[in-house]
Records
---
Amino acid sequence: MSRASGSTEAARTRRERRVTGRGSRRARHAERPSVWRGPLPYLAAALVIAGAIAWSILSRAGPTPTLTAAASDAVVASVTTIPADVFDRVGAGGLASPLRATTFETLRGASGKPVVIYVGAEYCPFCASERWSLVAALSRFGTFEGLSLSTSSSTDAYPDTPTLTFRGASYRSDHVELSAVETADRQGRPVADTTPVQQAAMDRSDPGGSIPFLSIAERYVAIGSGYRPDVLGGRTWAQIAEQMRDPSTPLARGVIGNANWITAAICEETGGQPANVCDSPGVHATRSK
Amino acid sequence: MSGDRPAIGLVVAGIAGVLISAYLTVTHDAGGTLACVSAAFVDCDAVTSSSYSLVPYTEIPVALAGLVWSAASAAGGALALRADPPWLRPAHLAWAAAGVLVALYLINAEIAVIGRICEWCTALHLIVFATLFLALRRVRMGDTSAA
């Protein structure tokens, strides 16, 4: 009997101990400070913001590494031989016309062909973006020699934008003449003066002297880039050349869309020649806008 | 509730955000130039004329989205001063956190891609960050009173 009563008491004690244990655990949980109460939430938010901004600063693109001559030639070859199908599929690329019509007479060169004038500088990021389109468009009318790769200034907006340069390049075409000048290098040092013809065209249509300045036989003028240079941002020359051939990319819509507008304006001055270019769907797409 | 200083701060921050966003939106639509210091890394035009000035895949100015966000945040602050329903504090915190994510995306575009910052945009980003901390403060207040 006494043994039985002893075991009952022991069981009660064990039960009480279990209950007391649960109660104290609950109490300890209630006393534990909520994660919201300490400085942790503020610190976490500040760290995320500061970390993201630091990452942006550190990931800022540096100068694009130089390419070998073969890789450079491959980029130039790719940009100057964009398939007609790409131009046709991009059409206007959703861009409004970058060109303004003038009331001037068509400017023709010594050969009687209409003259395309480009005035820019290697440091200028908007010239950098415009050149991709201009080279692609003019390559449909003729052939470039001596095109090389460059980047815009490291200290201007859209730093180190990959591009081509007209410095040291020449152009031959049965339909149009090109009069292009880069007035300064990517450090902003003067490297060439405008010719009297280039300067006269600028004085008439761009008295503020803004660059890039593009004149299609003085009948159409564009000042600035036809598309936003940031679509080129963070890409190498080779990636740009590759994406120019993919009509689904924003880059192709910008570069090739702008090129189609330039092509259409040149076609107006060449009397629709060459027909395979000027009658193409890509050029017609800009006319219908 | 009139002593809810974080809620008052949210209203003030929201109104300031609305004013700055409205200025950016109107200038964007009018194609005008912002009153902006032109210093080494400050170039408002370069930023506001970039493709990052539009909501991706749309023609909607980001500044207009900022205006809507700021107005909603100010309205949330005003509601907190009047009724403060229980869902408001976490909802405002989530709204602020979403705003911070967008602000960080735009700051990355300014620093890493465009290489220029816009002082009006920076002011708006600071307001968004302040909104996050104020919304956080209100959640903490709710947590403290609940305990």
---
Amino acid sequence: MFGAFVIAAKDLRQRFRDRSALILGFVAPVAVAALMSFAFSGVESFHANIALVDNDRGQIASALRGTLTGPELSDVLTIREASDDAAARRMVDDGDAGAGLIIPAGFSAAAVGDRPIGLRVLGDPDEPLQAQVARAVADAYVAQLNADRLAVHTALAAGVPESRGAELAAAVAKLQSPESVQAQPTGYRQLRTASYYAPAMGIMFVLFAIGFTARSYFAEQRTGTLERIGAAPLTRGVVLLGKSLAAFVYSVVSLSTLAIVSSLAFGAEWGPPAPAFALILAMSAVLVALTALVVATARTERQAEGLATIVTFVLLLLGGNFVLLSQAPETLRRLALLTPNGWALRGFTDLATGAGATSAIVPVLVMLGMAVVLGAIAAIVGRGRLT
Amino acid sequence: MAESTDSVLAVSQLGKRFGDRVAVDDVSFEVAPGETYGLLGPNGAGKTTTIRLVCGLLRADAGEVRVAGTPVGATSTAAKRSIGYVPQEIALYPDLTARENLRFFGRLYGLRGTALNRRVGEVLELIGLSDRATDRVESFSGGMKRRLNIGAGLLHEPKLLVLDEPTVGVDPQSRHAVMESVRSFGASGMAVLYTTHYMEEAERLCDRVGIIDHGRLVAEGTRRELVAELGERDRITLAAAGDLGVLAKRLRGLAGVDRADVKDGEVQLLAADGRRLLPGVLEAAERSGLSLRSVEVDEPDLEAVFLHLTGTALRE
């Protein structure tokens, strides 16, 4: 058994001395995760800058401005006043605003008249989402206005004197819809981009280590060091255990380092330490089994490299390491559950959104099951390879 | 073949097949303590397979290998403790230092702490690399790597040192150093199993030689025994000023001389052991009053034995 630790210590010493392995295992995951997090940081929270032109200055236009600048929408909208239509257009064109909303002259008066005047939206082709938000706000307000108009007309039809029309319209404008959809707290936090891409990139780079480890095995075979180890008084199991242990420790240290650095540097949430570490251990166990399978299947260093590349990219594409699985099509979400990295990401995502420590149990068990099955296949396929 | 009680290595009726190809066929030999045994044969003759079977790197299909009385097998570890294996390749880690390499291989053989440090120091001293102990192997010359490659097999002070063609691709100076090292191992009481396809190495280093061809051990013994089996004789050629006929007549009277003739202005003498006879030949020349100009001793070599036994030259 001591021989396994000797072999693992030697392998790790070599790996940590190898700059490319250090970059692959530690520098690259942190850098790429940071890059992805910054690049996609807008996905998790949306904010629209809208240029507003009030050509009406009437009571209802004023109410609309109040709604748009009110505290309810302050997290989503920033309203910038523009002096006229041309100024609003310039703001949109210059990128100072993502969209423009123009309240035409006579808008308030038309609200109580027979021919309503619509709000105009200025869009920027580069910011379609902001234009959509502006349009949605306009539509919603116009819908509310139409409801108000209907209420006023109904009141007038019911015998309220027309002299009180303006008073009625102002009163209705102050009303809010009695029914509205309110987001209720579910106990889950919103998933931050960094919380997804940090483990996703970490897993991606430890999967790259499959090729690295498999190649080093064949390199040892080529140079005769593996045979020399085989001539030592060790059982084959001890030799394989030592090799596996090194790959396992490398993966655990790599993912753990990324967890700590990404948490401190760019606020990635990995959830409670114990279940997160259990996920890291389980993912590392699968990595060892996958490496063993590649080594057992390949016959040459070149074959091992090719096979490892295929395995890695198939797993990465299916497992959702490149896309936020929560925003991916249903098919991809299902396919991700065929992969260990898909399960790992599911576990990390659940932990990051506050689903609780127990949410990691199933992913951990599934990954360990995969490790056992893959390891058994590797053992059968590679029987007798060491000697 | 009966195993002698004091042999370090006893190989008995060893056999190994790879598919339809017979790699080792009914091979038996023994190596005693302090003896250097050479397995001589061309590439592909079965030397390396035999060595791998001896070291427990392959599972034998037939026969048995015992090292220090303990059977060797691919799954057993006890006998492997008595074996030091030096593969043909430079089986070292270039990105580790000489000391780190030796410490790693020493640990694999169960050396720890002070004992490990002591042995690593001793081996570095032995192979002349103490001053390069902390340098990475990748910075070493070919000869230094070869020496370290051998040193890694000596750490646990094995009873049997197995060297698989340790001089392949080595420059003459390093080759000489390797051969001197091997000679010293035998002198220290270690049993050495040495494979080579260089006849000269086998002749210089090995107390006994086993000639292997197509997986079979076709002959074994000392060089002299093998040559004697062949019926060849040593040839001594003397060039001298004076009556060569008198000298030839005197030489014919020496014990061990089969034949002595004057031919082409020289005296040519055939004997079973030319080297042993040489002092008597020189004395006879002096007594004959001749002034010797040159003396040449030609001994039939293992190349001739190999050619005779296998019908092919060793390097074919």
